[in-house]
Amino acid sequence: MGKPPKEIDWELFEKIVWVPVLATHHLADMLKVSKSTLERHVKKRYGGTIEAVREQKSGPMRHTLFSSMWNAATVQGNISAMIWLSKNILGWSDKVEQKQEVEAKVERVEYVAQWSNGATVEAKEEGH
Fold first, then answer.
1. Exposed (0-12), middle (13-18) or buried (19+): which is 35, by Cβ within 10 Å?
2. To which H or E segment does residue 112 belong?
């Protein structure tokens, strides 16, 4: 007879699955099961992958965070929140691109070579 199936604390799973910095192996460690056991149980319970469950569970949290950021910017006048929203919603950027084109034509080149004995050689070349 095989080992009894591992029990997973689904309440804890639902609290931590949406956290983006927790990779699957981190989730498994926190739930005290192997990565493959967690993946198998998630597929059985939710009918999909851990990534699909993560995406589903992170929606409400993203909404809450966005609402808080919106409130901080529009109601509280928080400058940092305004900048963040401007960059992420309006597509603004700190980058300033400057492009300057220069066209140059060499008219004449002069070469001067001077030695320590005082001898000098000069050459002139007209541009093409």
1. middle
2. strand 108-114
What number of other Cβ atoms are within 10 A of residue 11's Cβ? 7
Distance CA(13)–CA(27), nearest Å, equals 8
Shortest CA distance to 41 belongs to which of 4, 3, 10?
A: 10
Nearest to 128 by CA among 109, 106, 111, 104: 106
Please give the model's pTM, rounded to 2 decimal places: 0.52
Q: Which residue type, as a one-letter code, is found at position 80?
A: S
Give the other-Cβ count within 10 Å of 50's Cβ: 20
Tens-place pLDDT, residues 34-84: 999 999 999 999 999 999 999 888 888 888 888 998 999 999 999 999 998
